[in-house]
Amino acid sequence: MVFAPTSEWTSWGRVNRAPHHVARPTWRQDIPAVVAEGRQRFPSLLPVGLRRSYGDSVLNPAGAVIDMTGVDRMIAFDPATGVLRADAGLSFDALLRALVPRGFFLPVTPGTRFVTLGGAVANDVHGKNHHGAGTIGCWVRRLGLLRSDGREHDLGPDDETGLFAATIGGLGLTGIITWVELSLMPITSTMMDVETIAFDDLDGFFALAEASEQAFDYTVAWVDCLAGGARTGRGLFTRGRHAAAGPLEAGKAGGPTIPMDFPGFALNGLSIRAFNALYAWNGRRTAGNSIQHYQPFFYPLDAIGQWNRMYGQRGMFQYQSVVPPDAARDATAAMLRAIASAGEGSFLAVLKTFGDRPSPGMLSFPSPGTTLALDFPNRGDGTLALLARLDAIVREAGGKLYPAKDGRIPRDMFRAGYPGWERFASHVDPLMSSMFWNRVGP
Amino acid sequence: MTEITPQPGPRLRVLILGGTSGIAEATARLYAAEGADILLVGRDRTKLDTIAADLGVRGAGRAEVAISDLAAPADAAAELSGFAATLGGVDHILVAYGILGDQAEAARDAAAAERIMTVNFNSAAAWCLAAANLLESQGRGSLVVLGSVAGDRGRRQNFVYGAAKAGLAALVEGIAHRFAATGPRAVLVKPGPTITAMTAGMTRKGLLWAKPEAVAAVVRRAADKGGPVVYAPWFWRFIMLIIRFLPASIFNRLDI
């Protein structure tokens, strides 16, 4: 019995929950047999990793899922070139622990280190260095892709069939990524030179972004999305780079874990306002130059295990959009106004400009422009209505939403944002599907 | 932040019997992060090689494999000294292989019961006795053996497995007693239910199921310090204390 039924299966946002059949292989060589059994028993399959995706792209209640986190071994590493080959289920956390002491870092990392290599590739994740480094897909040298017909493909950027391009950002729908070969980045210190600057409005943000992106590898801003009127778009801009000298020490394991769901009343307008004020105050207090370890710089939320439980039993939505440069200022201001007037509030609003380095991925999210990421506790219809208003602003600006964060994007908006979707669909494995793909696919 | 200090002196040399077990692999990763030299012993070369490659990237000084059917040692003492020679000497020996077996089958089929006892007790005992002599002759080193909370009281669900692990517990406690006045140490680690391949067919929900990483941390620490019997995670010590002292009149009515 390779696939076992499980009652509780959900994504990071925890809005959608459904019983699932789950297989968890431990060896790369066992995966073909798991797929073969799944093919007999279920109408569709979906490979998943650590399920930090917020919406329904890691759910497949109509079929079954293959949890890849047990297949997590490193296969080879060449310290001369910094090229690592590893099983798809290896987490960024384990990768950093093994290779940071030897002077290597991820070329691109999202805001959590609890993602798998396969998941990072399947979502073509980006980080605070997108303006220079692009997405993780830019750093994938080769990958193994097992299709449900039992054939394993060894794919690289030279692939002319389009299967490699479809798999980068392909949400696990093109087959099972079994291993990934990635170019790592040499570092000489695990410390970061970091500068934090307060800005008063969106013009301040854009000026800082423009002034910083040449000289700093990493840039990101936090915006107080409860501030209205003249203060709309105020926030804190952070820019950093790897320090030239210092220790090479991997970060410590996670901190405390939130043991249970917070009650619904814990997150209300007042607590969000208090949190935003506190965050702003703390940011201003620490504004200026500092030297910090990479871990709090890249992964502040990883310090609190299961922080998604703060949003209570009903879960949360994350909403991440990107809008092209010409429309970026007006669209971002309009979104912030819509949030402030709806009184829904978001704990964290993260703002960043993407660069123009293209990803090889057909369905990759980042594109030149400005991206805004927001968390909203799920309060039902009111929240959905606000998200629909944000949809209208993003569409009007010619933007799109990030599938890794999404659990509700309307089908036509997805198709408008990803004109390559039909070409992508032709590469989807006939046995692979997800709740997300059922919603937006053909 | 302090700088990473390289291992002082020679690297730790670790011999793992049953290298593909989930708890053994998680423990080996801790040793690898310390830069230890590791020899993995088992039957499946492909799996052992896969693990060894991973341990190498994770920082092991050396990670090598040796193929042996641990459940049927022809001459445990000779084989063990061969393993030690491969490592250039041995500091820690971990006996980690075992099978859970099927209690219902064992009740029907004497051969199935014997298989559970042979793998989990007879062969393991042979390795432990050989390891005890080896460590005693060198006057130092640790023997860490994986037992089970199932050995603390026979339960209808798995008492053949439990009996074999109980026998192993008595054996390792005896070795620890024998070592008491000398240099080496022997420890029996008793994990509770752990999420590994061994328990893949079971419904693994609930607070009492541990991840192999949590058990591995206890196993690794046991090689350096602690008593001759260590529970993993620690709370099993108290749960099993209660279970062992329940009068049979009550215990026999419980469905546990």
UniProtKB/TrEMBL annotation, chain A:
GO terms for molecular function: FAD binding; L-gulono-1,4-lactone dehydrogenase activity; oxidoreductase activity, acting on the CH-OH group of donors, oxygen as acceptor. The keyword Flavoprotein applies. Keywords: FAD, Flavoprotein. Residues 15-187 form the FAD-binding PCMH-type domain. The keyword Flavoprotein applies. SUPFAM superfamilies: FAD-binding/transporter-associated domain-like. InterPro entries: FAD-bd_PCMH, FAD-bd_PCMH-like_sf, FAD-bd_PCMH_sub2, FAD_lactone_oxidase-like, Oxid_FAD_bind_N. This is FAD-binding oxidoreductase.
TrEMBL record, chain B:
Pfam families: adh_short. The keyword Oxidoreductase applies. The keyword Cell membrane does not apply. GO terms for molecular function: oxidoreductase activity. PROSITE patterns: ADH_SHORT. Keywords: Oxidoreductase. InterPro entries: NAD(P)-bd_dom_sf (IPR036291), Sc_DH/Rdtase_CS (IPR020904), SDR_fam (IPR002347). Transmembrane segments: none annotated. Belongs to the short-chain dehydrogenases/reductases (SDR) family. This is Acetoacetyl-CoA reductase. The lineage of its organism: Bacteria, Pseudomonadati, Pseudomonadota, Alphaproteobacteria, Hyphomicrobiales.
